[in-house]
């Protein structure tokens, strides 16, 4: 071993290479979950709202979520106009541009950002939801191993970093029908993507790869901040019914019935992240539509994105 090392040493400068690798590794940001030394309850959500969540979230709503894949709960937690305005100012510093299927702009808040805008209650509330759902929502058994901080009986957690998305839609902004956890087929070496992807090396030329979910999102939680929002202002969240298993979300407009959700201040929308939904165009040129979103996940290592999880969400006959 050492002899080989010294042989190789003559060809490469191993010591220099090792130093470079160490420097590189030390320059990496720490993994947010690990370095924060979080306990399981912190990772799942703060306890600040633990005791009052039962009052804020009607148990019937969770039954709705179970049965239909979504639940709309009004007047859960309102946001003051000044915090809403501050959020807009804050977000102007860090917005990211969008692609063809959406024209809104988003930014991600950590707790310090939320505090700066007077939105710490909203932030803590969203982070507590995973814990509440673990206690009150039946997720069905999964063959996938729960991984810390999830457990068999409490499989839901929050994404690493726990950032909350703020999305802003101005006049004419929209988000086309999509799923927050779409069905993908694996990409083959030729870059083929979609229903006919094949894996040439192992299975022959025409083998179709298994379907796979694209991420670990399980429940999407959205808190709306818009005081006095009217149906005529547009910007409705359009939820396509029974759409968790739709493979091409863009077709849902033609094939699925929907309900519209008015994004009014204090409203909480919970839905199975696989459901197809869109944000219809904002029609009022004097209004800005804002929302805070948290994706409640299973731990990434659980392997759950590989399964068509949560199969039984469609209404029982
Ligand atoms: O703001 C909304 O109502 C939904 C936005 C959305 O679908 C998303 O950001 O994925
Ligand atoms: Fe979405």
Automatic annotation (TrEMBL):
Q: Which cofactor does it need?
A: L-ascorbate
Signal sequence span is none
In terms of SMART domains, this protein maps to: P4Hc (SM00702)
Q: Which residues form the Fe2OG dioxygenase domain?
A: 160-298
Does the keyword section mention RNA-binding?
Answer: no
| UniProt keyword annotations, A-Z | Dioxygenase, Iron, Metal-binding, Oxidoreductase, Vitamin C
Q: Which InterPro entries match?
A: HIF_prolyl_hydroxylases, Oxoglu/Fe-dep_dioxygenase_dom, Pro_4_hyd_alph, Pro_4_hyd_alph_FE2OG_OXY
| Enzyme Commission number(s) of this protein | 1.14.11.-
Ribosomal protein as UniProt keyword:
no
This protein is called what? 2OG-Fe(II) oxygenase
